[in-house]
Amino acid sequence: MTTAQDLFAQGSHAFTEEDYEEALSFYSQAIEVNGTHAEVFLKRSATYQKLGKDKEAYEDAVFALGLIKEKPSSDVTVEAKAQLRKGVAAFHLQDYQTAKVALEACKTLSPEQRTLASWIRKNEQELAKLPKTAVAVTPATVAAAAPAADVTPVVSAVASPASTPVPAPLTPAAHRVRHEWYQNDSFVTISVFIKNVKKDAVEIIFTDKALSVSVKMPTGSDYSLELDPLSHKVIPSESKYEVLSTKIEIQLKKEVFAIKWGALEGDDVNAGSMAAVPAGAAPAYPTSSKKPKNWDALAKEAANDEDKADGDKALNQLFSQIYKDADDDTRRAMMKSFTESNGTCLSTNWDEVGKGTVETRPPEGMVAKKYSS
């Protein structure tokens, strides 16, 4: 029989691989097997947040706190994480008073919690926007202040929607923003694909093991990306970001040069991914061949071949480089113009190409003919 510990491990692996639906399934199965471990509820809460299910994330955090208070011997850092998780979920639900109570509780328990200062500042900014009226006591606020004796965890059902009314969530589009990452020896680069964002609408905080990204979307909603903990340490003072027309590009400076990250967030469990390359040594790459190739030598040889390119090959390389470095609109213009003109026109101006079909323009002295089978 599969144990709760095994299911938790599988869920954590899926979470690290950013397969949040699968992680949610494993964590839920682990809770069905044994629903007495607060850590599982906290991981499922984090997974719900990644999926944009803030109400469920809040409920799991509250449930985890109930389990912790039943065990006075629990590690204080676990309770601090639960309060932070509850505060973040309440913030996304726009219940800023409840978020404030939870975040302050986290600060009292463990003030060094990563990203805590950032969330407190964000929440204070939102509270400052609210009308200066008496704050109504909501069931969520009462639950936050209730003594441990009043908490009666039930594995089959956490707080019901009827008993814990919550404000409307943020605009769903904020959760559908795509991000990708890649790396080289020195940096891990994260691209967050949001168009037309103003620089003053972006707040990014680097710590040695966490990244916090907050963006005021052009639509008026808020987007947040919290990577805590990162799979490896970074150097905050040498990390940087740039706001471009089509994306936000973030560069995390690796603390250990040439270490290969097998994951962006959480525990890096990929075998061999933690071994740094000694200075002066050629990096080794996974291979099933009995005679491994010297990929660096092949890459150098290919680079030399490119240097010798001429004629059509050189022209194609130029176009490939332009396409590679172009933004989305330029790429669309190139593809549309080349396809619709039957290869006789290549334009990078989307404003012009997007107005209609691009006509075939054969070279001077030649006539375009339609192919007939």
UniProtKB/TrEMBL annotation:
In the record, what terms sit under GO molecular function? Answer: protein-folding chaperone binding
- For the region Disordered, give the residue spans: 354-373
Q: Name one GO cellular component term.
A: cytoplasm
Stored SUPFAM superfamilies: HSP20-like chaperones, TPR-like
**Which controlled-vocabulary keywords does the entry list?**
TPR repeat
Renumbered ranges of TPR repeats: 4-37
User: In what residue span(s) does the SGS domain sit?
Assistant: 284-373
Q: Which residues form the CS domain?
A: 174-265
The family classification in the record reads: Belongs to the SGT1 family.
Q: What is this protein called?
A: Protein SGT1 A
Q: Which gene encodes it?
A: SGT1A_2
